[in-house]
Amino acid sequence: MKKKVVIGLSGGVDSSVAAWALKEQGYEVTGLFMRNWHDTTGLLQSDCHWEDDLMFAEMVASKLDIPFHQVDLSVPYRQRVIDYMFSEYEKGRTPNPDVLCNREIKFDSFAEEARKLGGDFVATGHYCRKGEILSGEKTIYRLLSGKDNNKDQSYFLCQLSQEQLAIALFPIGDLLKPEVRKIAEKLGLATARRKDSQGICFVGKVHLPTFLQQKLKVIKGDIIEITDTSVFPEENEGIPSGDVSEEFLLSVTKPFKYQPEYGQIIGEHDGAHFFTIGQRKGMNVGGHKEPLFVISTDINKNIVYVGEGQTHPGLNRKGLFIRNDEVHWIRPDIKMETGECRDYMVRIRYRQPLQEARLYCKENGIYIVFNKLQRGIAPGQFAAWYAGDELIGSGVINQ
Which H or E run contains 213? Predict the structure, then answer.
């Protein structure tokens, strides 16, 4: 008897080819389209973009001769992804809604709908791979990076659990994007030349301040430029060998504490919670040779601190800290114990090249110290650590 797979058909080329690949592998395939967002506030594209997605998804299902359904998951999506996003920005943190969408919607709420349709597995068009190993009589599932280094999307799945991976299938993880396009063209799929989606998962490309103003108030405040770079501590590259003290870990992972007297007021903003570290747009301040970048925000005093140029020392940090309650192990069988340290490759944002780092597991959480200074570390982002091409764990950056 064929195993049944329910694939999330999004109206894009990746999920379209993934559905075809599953049929080729002998699965009984059903397409399921999710509508997760109704509001058009702040959107930078057609108000009816989801209707276009639905139309393309239906055409693909028809072409592949597979059953097609649609479901509205906008209530759990708002509660578990968008409300979280608003809450994090309000605290001055920078969330990644795509990571949350995969954990809370695609492999949770969507998976429940898939089970109602009789699905044994849930499939998506992510560029990543799944592996299995046996530990005694128990199967351990591995999340592996996609073969296409330019499109690897394992980072977006860094919060999945073993239970979620057990039912997950990623049919195009061994393909390169050009190959996927070529297959779609050969099959005559309507999505073959359709552009990839951009912006917030299931919402689309938005003007973020306008989008956030649905719930976050405009509060005028000062933009202060830090021109005296002598106030910054000197950060050395490399990772110390041997044991390191907790004082050292605190010193390299704690963000620099800015004071208004370190710089001068150069403009006004609409709310520090609308800005994130490393941001260069939206300040509307002229008169500089090089672009201005946000190097820190003070939510309590409603101040945005900025520095001029890509090489401003305020953009760089040596390390970061993740609280115990926000550490997640995809491989709980090899999670670190208190007092242990390990070398992993780490990334703090999608498409960032993997960075050499050492993880120190302490009673209160994990300290990550990088070999090279890292640009734009922001609380609320996810740090994910890899051993080779396997994603081992992740966590929300606390500081």
Answer: none
Question: What does the pLDDT look like over 203-221, one tens digit per residue?
Answer: 555 566 677 777 788 899 9
Q: Which domains does the chain have, with CATH numbers?
A: 4-210 (3.40.50.620), 217-396 (2.40.30.10)
Contact 392, 329 (CB under 8 A): yes
DSSP secondary structure letters along 215-258: TSPP--EEEEEE--GGGSPP---S---S---HHHHHHHHSPP--
Q: Would you call 201 a catalytic residue per the annotation?
A: yes
Cα–Cα nearest to 319, from 273, 267, 263, 256? 256
DSSP 252-315: HHSPP---GGGEEEEEEES-GGG--TT--SS------SS-EEEEEEETTTTEEEEEESTT-GGG
From 128, 158, 201, 361, the catalytic residue: 201
Helix and strand numbers, DSSP H then E, in the chain: 10, 18
Side-chain-side CA neighbours of 63 within 13 Å: the count stands at 21
Report residue 52's pLDDT band, with 50, 70 and 90 as the boundaries: confident
Backbone angles phi, psi at 221, to 5 degrees: -155, 175
In the DSSP assignment, the letter for residue 37 is -
Give the containing element (helix H, strand E) for 77. helix 74-77
pLDDT tens per residue across span 163-208: 999 999 999 999 999 999 999 999 999 999 888 876 555 555 556 6
Lowest-pLDDT range of 41-50, 81-90, 98-107, 239-248: 41-50
In tens, the pLDDT along 10-49 reads: 999 999 999 999 999 999 999 999 987 766 555 555 444 7
Computed over every residue of the chain, the mean pLDDT equals 90
DSSP tag of 78: I
Q: Which of 101, 128, 158, 361 is catalytic?
A: 101
pLDDT computed for residue 204 by the predictor? 53
Distance from C-alpha of 384 to C-alpha of 362, rounded to nearest angstrom: 18
**Amino acid found at 165:** L
Query: Residue 361: CA atoms inside 13 Å, Cβ hemisphere, count?
Result: 19
> What single letter denotes the amino acid at residue 154?
S
pTM of the model: 0.91
Residue linked to tokens 């389209």: 33
Instruction: Give the number of other Cβ atoms within 10 Å of residue 384's Cβ.
Output: 29
Q: What is the DSSP letter of 40?
A: -
Say if residue 371 is exposed, middle or buried (CB neighbours under 10 Å; 0-12, 13-18, 19+). middle
* C-beta of residue 328 within 8 angstroms of C-beta of residue 158: yes
Annotated active-site residue 101? The verdict is yes
